[in-house]
Amino acid sequence: MASRGKTVQLNNMFVADFETCDAEKVYKLDARTGKEIKHQKVWLAGFKNLETMESTYFYSLDEFMEAILSRGNNVNTEYAFHNIKFDGSYIIPWLLTNSYTVSLGRPQAGEFSVLVDKAKAWDSITIQVTKRRKVLLWDSQKLFPCALEYLPDVYSTPTQKVREDSEFYERVRPDGYIPDAREMGYFENDLQVPAEALNEHIKLFDLRFKKTQASQSFYNFEQGFGDWKGFKHWKFRFPALTTDEDKSIRPAYWGGIALVPAVKAAKKGKEDYYNIGVMDINSSYPDKAANKKLPYGRCVAAYGEGQHPNMSKFWVAEALVEFTLKENCLPCIPSAAISEGRPKETDKWMTDSEGIVRLRFSNIDYGTMQLSYDIKVWRWCWSMHWAWKVQKEVADFVYMNNDNKVKFSKLAKLETDPHKKVYYNTMRNRAKTDNNAFYGKFGEDIVKEGKTPYWENEDVIWRLDRSEEQNENKRKFLPVAMAITAWGRRQLVTLANILGEDFLYCDTDSVHYLLTGQWKIDLAAEKGIIKVDAEELGAWKLEGKAARGRYLRAKCYMEEMIDEKTGKTHIEATVAGLPADKHSGQFSKKRSCLNWDNFYIGHEVPAEKTNKLRTVKTPTGNKLLPTHFKLREKEVLFG
Questions:
Q1: Of 79, 85, 288, 593, which sits 20 to 30 A from 253 (CA to CA)?
Q2: Does pLDDT of 69 surpass 60?
Q3: Nearest to residue 514, comparing CAs of 540, 532, 535, 496?
Q4: DSSP assignment, residue 532?
């Protein structure tokens, strides 16, 4: 048995789950439907030990909580919930009404703390039972960001999730209810699926595995730099910024561009386009991390007002600028990066500054903006500079993972032994995940704001009252994330502008266009302006063709895709916020509630057809209810 303070051992690790339903007591009337909303209760709960794979069941929340908080042999334990935001909504009120108090910092005996950020994203609940015993409840969905149904795909584990009909989930069980064999089988399956995935993960990364996908990938990346006297080498290359430095340059950290030009968007009716091509970049951000110059080290120079930045360095600057989009070019300046002078009516990606504005941007984006805009800098306010170069260790990590992804994909296709096939698929998925997740940690906030629950007036009230500034050891190096995403935008903008009037839509690393413009792509590739290759890292590839397409706004479009082998067509709909059809696949774009007749701005999909659930809060836990979905003209710009 591990001593207190050491890594939690496998025999003290569990997966856990709840089944819930309405209680008898009415809470309120639903503002949307006028129907009664009742308090919620747990009618079946349980956990499965990851070492023995034995399950323990309980028929109330009281029984479950008393079991996990029992003093026992004073060892620390961990319980993984797949979506702790839901299950935690039952645990928090129980703790607050059962002699536990919430702590803003590290909890003491009889206290608990929560990690819930300002956007209401849940991470964990830590309960300090006694001075010697701590219970951690954490979210396995942060480590495996997919629905439980698709969790077996991560490591090719054998148990598949059991499916039930809506009546099963909506049925009210009375107090003292004893589940039948069908219900127990369903619940046991919901414990077995995550337990198998976690055990496979632990085999790869041992008991000290990280509890989010990005953290695990970044940890794997760190190992490529090695240690020097116990200090990570990457910390010398990419040192922590000061709080003031981070605050100054963070507004220049922009995201991926998802956009349909206003002249191509189907606003008033059902304006469609035909004969469409879709080009994707092979692993865009990993390619930029490996093959483009990235900043490193301490800030080497800071220029004041009126001084032009040093173009031989990586820099971030604030300037007074004025800009207008060139004809048939892709907007690439986000309105959120403007601190003064922002027009009252504007899209997320701006076409016109409508006068002089104050903007923060990097040197890479400065070059990209000039591809799309007639832009004038009226005055440089300040700039900060770093040395930059292609980072060999980063490139080694990316290409190692890319080579492994290709190698194990081929081996998995050829292998007939089912056990070896599982291993090859596992290694392929791990390599792919590492490449796609590690670089985002460089952009992590150094000041983390969070919410805290309080029990007031017989209900849980959340307040945004926690602000934690990361210590230097935990901070990453923001300029790297800025450079990687900026290089990605440069590649996207370059192709979109080449296509000009034939450009229809883009999203981060893909471009949709009229095939009448294919000659422009071919000519650009012939001249070496862009690279087209089905396999090469960072090259463009033809992802597919569509017979028809309709584009409403960012992340909201429908296409009739053509099967390359059969020539048959099928409809795919990408609509942010509207779930795909049930059981149609983790990355499915099948949304049967939409078709060419109803896919337009203003159409409302009724609740019984959306597969979308809304959360209704009650004092004893959250209730999920079907909800409608309306196709709106604009996405949310801020917040």
A1: 85
A2: yes
A3: 496
A4: B
Strands (E), 159-285: 227-228, 231-232, 258-259, 273-281
Write phi, then psi, for 376 (nearest 5 degrees). -125, 130
Residues 220 and 525: their CA atoms lie apart, in Å, by 35
Using CA atoms, how far apart are residues 602 and 369, in angstroms rounded to an integer?
33
Question: How far apart are the C-alpha atoms of 218 and 481, rounded to whole Å?
Answer: 13
Residue 546 is encoded by which pair of tokens?
């569509």
Cβ atoms < 10 Å from Cβ of 3: 6
Kindly state the DSSP code that residue 169 receives in the 8-state scheme. Answer: H
Q: Round to whole Å and give the CA distance between 403 and 421.
A: 18
In angstroms, what CA-CA distances link 495 with 261, 331, 476?
15, 13, 32
* 636 burial level (CB within 10 Å; 0-12, 13-18, 19+): exposed
424: left (phi over 0), alpha (psi -120 to 50) or beta: alpha
User: Position 456: which residue type?
Assistant: E
- What integer is the mean pLDDT of 296-324? 97
Interval 217-229 mean pLDDT: 76
22 Cβ partners below 8 Å, 6+ apart? 38, 39, 40, 41, 172, 623
Over residues 378-400, the pLDDT tens digits come to 999 999 999 999 999 999 999 99
Burial class (CB in 10 A: 0-12, 13-18, 19+), 385: buried
Predicted local confidence at residue 101, as pLDDT? 96
Alpha carbon distance, N-terminus to C-terminus of the chain = 47
Residue 83's Cβ-side half-sphere holds a number of Cα atoms within 13 Å equal to 12
Q: Which helix (H) or strand (E) holds 89?
A: helix 84-96
Instruction: Give the torsion through C-alpha atoms of 67, 71, 72, 74, to 10 deg.
Output: 130
At 559, list the tokens: 């296409």
The CA-based diameter of the chain, rounded to the nearest angstrom, is 76
DSSP 292-323: S-EEEEEEEEEE-TTPPP-TTSEEEEEEEEEE
Q: What is the CA radius of gyration of the chain?
A: 26
Q: Is the pTM of this model over 0.70?
A: yes
Work out the number of other CB atoms within 10 angstroms of the CB of residue 514. Answer: 18
Task: Calculate the CA 418 to chain-centre distance.
Answer: 32
Work out the burial of residue 182: count CB atoms within 10 Å of its CB; fewer than 13 is exposed, 13-18 middle, 19 or more buried: exposed
Count the neighbouring beta carbons within 10 Å of the beta carbon of residue 117. Answer: 15
CA distances from 260 to 62, 266, 506, 623 (A): 52, 9, 7, 36
Residue-wise DSSP of 411-474? HHHH---HHHHHHHHHHHHHHHHHHHHSGGGGG--SEEEEEEEEEETTEEEEEEEEEEEPPTTT
Residues 336-366 pLDDT 10s: 999 999 888 788 999 999 999 999 999 999 9
Angle at 74 between CA 68 and CA 79, to 5 degrees: 35
The total number of residues written for the chain in this structure: 639
Q: Is the pLDDT of residue 568 over 80?
A: yes
The Cα-based distances of 465 to 197, 210, 450, 457, 485 in angstroms read 36, 27, 7, 19, 31
CA distance 533 to 536: 6
Asked if 512 and 502 count as a contact pair (C-beta separation under 8 A), the reply is no
Q: Do residues 81 and 46 make contact, with C-beta atoms less than 8 angstroms apart?
A: no
Tokens 């039948």 correspond to what residue? 180
Q: Which of 635, 612, 632, 636 is nearest to 624 (CA)?
A: 612
Element (H, E) at 112: strand 111-116
